[in-house]
UniProtKB/TrEMBL annotation, chain A:
The keyword Metal-binding applies. PROSITE patterns: 2FE2S_FER_2. This is (2Fe-2S)-binding protein. It comes from Streptomyces longisporus. Keywords: 2Fe-2S, Iron, Iron-sulfur, Metal-binding.
Automatic annotation (TrEMBL), chain B:
InterPro entries: Ald_Oxase/Xan_DH_a/b (IPR000674), Ald_Oxase/Xan_DH_a/b_sf (IPR036856), AldOxase/xan_DH_MoCoBD1 (IPR008274), AldOxase/xan_DH_MoCoBD2 (IPR046867), AldOxase/xan_DH_Mopterin-bd_sf (IPR037165), N-heterocyclic_Hydroxylase (IPR052516), OxRdtase_Mopterin-bd_su_IorB (IPR012368), TAT_signal (IPR006311). SMART domains: Ald_Xan_dh_C. This is Molybdopterin-dependent oxidoreductase. PROSITE patterns: TAT. PANTHER family: ALDEHYDE DEHYDROGENASE, BLL3820 PROTEIN. Residues 1-22 are annotated as: Disordered. Pfam families: MoCoBD_1, MoCoBD_2. It comes from the Bacteria. Residues 229-307 form the Aldehyde oxidase/xanthine dehydrogenase a/b hammerhead domain.
Amino acid sequence: MPSYSFTLNGRPVTVEAPADMPLLWVLRDLLHVTGPKYGCGVGVCRACTSHLDGEEFQPCVVKVKECADRTVTTIEGLADGDTLHPVQQAWIDCDVSQCGFCQPGQIMAAAALLKKTPEPSDADIDGIENVCRCGTYARIREAIKKAAADLRS
Amino acid sequence: MDGIESSAAPTGPAQDTGAPRRAVSRRRFMVYSLAASTLTVAAPLACDTSPAQGSEPARGPSDVLVTGADAEMLVLEVTHANRIVVRLPRVEVGQGITTAVAMMIAEELDARLADVDIPLADARTKGNQYTGGSNSVVSLYGPARRLAATARARLVTAAARRWHLPAWSLRTGNTMVIAPDGRTATFGSLSASAARIRRTAVSAEPKPASRHKLIGRPTTRIDARDIVTGKAQYTGDLSVAGAKPTVVARPPTLGGRLVSVDDRAARALPGVHAVVKVPGGVAVVAESFHHAFQARDALKIKWAPGPLASLSDAQIRSRLRAAVPHLGSPPHGSTQVEAEFEFAFVSHAPMEVLTAIADVRAHTAEIWFSSQTPTDARDSIASATGLPASAVTVHVLRGGGSFGRRLNFDAAIEAALISKAAHRPVKLMWSRGDDTRHGRMRPATHHRFRASHADGRVVAFSHAMAGVGESSADKGTANQAAFVRRPGRVQTAGPRPGDSGLYHFGRLSADAGGIELAIPLGAWRSVDSGMVRTAEEIVVDEIAGSLGKDPVAFRRTTLRSRSVKAVLDKVAAAGSWGRTMPDGHAQGVAVHEEYGSCVACLAEIDATDPKHPRVTKVVMAADVGTAVNPRGLEAQLMGTAVDGISTVLQAGLHIDRGAVREGSFADFQWARQRHAPLHFEAHIMPSAGEPGGAGELGVPAASGAVANAYARATGTRPRRFPLNF
């Protein structure tokens, strides 16, 4: 079986996996990194949203071979040690989560948005496609705006 | 939830077979068993029983205080490490019950909220372990506070004895007892001696509401940090040794039957451990979910069409319409407002698809999954696997949403059958396609209303409906169908939730028919009220229109309950009812009363493009009696607003020749951020009354307000839901 090396949450990892294995299952089933969630497997619900070389991506539709020698960050790698990323802190401050299942993906999507767009408009926030079945969208919007302000200050 | 999440997750190397696989899970879940040298108190959870205080210990060594049978109890333990642990006989699926109970416990103990752990209890043999009917806070509010107040009294008494001080002179705070001279003792340090206290020297009664410091204060979820760091564990995140990823090939049609399977190609693929037939299809156990999906897709299966193969939406709708009983004759001389409504099937679609880990052995079974009905699940798993119920252990996990879906335990039974057939532990996951195409779903319904008015007043109100019922429960889940039909609701005083006893509408009449189809159905958040009350609130607007009255003014003069009028007034004022809106924009309003609570919703919509409307603003007001956690209540209302937007405007399931057309969130159009209100606010009415239910409360009001806003913005009469389908 081929072997792939990449950087995962700041650490080098090497896995033996079929080339076409979606990264989501490499993360969850082989590396036991379970923050990215399965919600559809077709890149639609975006519960698995993580970062590839700093950009938002959906590991359920990206093959492990496409991640070779690149940098993958999941929700587990977003904080700086015990210091939460401002988006994570805003999520707590606004008490965004309900069931919590989609929130790792929501947070990773929001962090990626703020990296590109430090002062997002409502239309920018509307562009986030991640599904929240509990309907926490209003608090997600509030938390993104709070995190944006915190990042600027 | 903190307790489960923070305990060490077993992540050792997974083993294919063999005995050691059980040890890991045991350690994981036995952490919270009663310790012999700590204070442990218990309160009965049945509705009509008294607190445990003063009862004689029923079991165990003398330094452990436990009353009654453990299986019936809400048990509180104070550990030597100064943790307050209450194993909760309910499931956390996002509704915030673990936080609400932690607040009740911390309030009465004067403990720090951060020192309280609320792990979920395994399935018990007796007692109320049902999560549903918006009943958890209602049923736990008394017992949880009495439990903690009893523990506090014993801890204070133990400290008084230790320090030879009068108990009345001692205070409690920050999970400690505090003496007048400033000495402190943590609850943990007092636990062993408190366990031996029989007669308390201070009151064991809960505080009056006027002294509440935590109950009623907006409080962040106790599991918030675990969630945002990815530590919160759902069933699929558990590593139970040897439990391999498992998926099931299912028929294209609902209830389709397996004719034959050629599994040679699938078995030849790398990483495939087992292929077994189950009632729902063909299961593949593999090294990863990638391997499992690949092998599933390599199965060559012949399916026979299911029993609905000749049916599509058009026929179902016409059969439902024909099954609606006739309305009686209207009062002589009255004017009629008539309307018919149709609601499509709706998926529960929790973000976490159904997932269950099962380890079925010759004489025992152990199951891990998120369940609203673990006691019933255990009995059904026992009968499906041929084991006595006492041999089946069900561990209850937090759920990634539910909305009623986890009242049923389809996946747990299926996982148990696969484990039994494959002779190995399995981690079964339904794909999103499985979840969308094979249910369960909110039943489709058809409603006929007639309101009769004379001299400016409604003198009669009639409603007749027909809904789809589930005709047979195959797949060995017979108990579940019965369960779905059992409403599981608490009888509360006041008008019943529908037909429309909320209003002074003269002579009321109601009738219901139905058709039976072999289709997997389930109770969906707010159950019948999601359709009945939504439709009624639309009719109320149309009556007001027929009488030339404003929707808010008309409701204010015809509502029976003062509490409902108060929440209506609140949203009308806070939401500036009647403000001028541009063309294509409008406000809509609706109210609802159920579970001993009431709610009003005002929605503003931009329907300049009627095919792509946007609800821009939602204002809700709720009176739920004492709101234990207003922040959690606001979250529940916010969720129901999105339920209303989704089910009224855009999200439903089509049936095409016996199959569900939709297969994921790509075509099951649940609201995204761009459909959600840009502005949401919730007003919690002050109340010192007993808590009412709140989790489902908002759905009909939000749905009705969205539909009424759409009607006013577009000048149309909404009749079929979802409107853009």
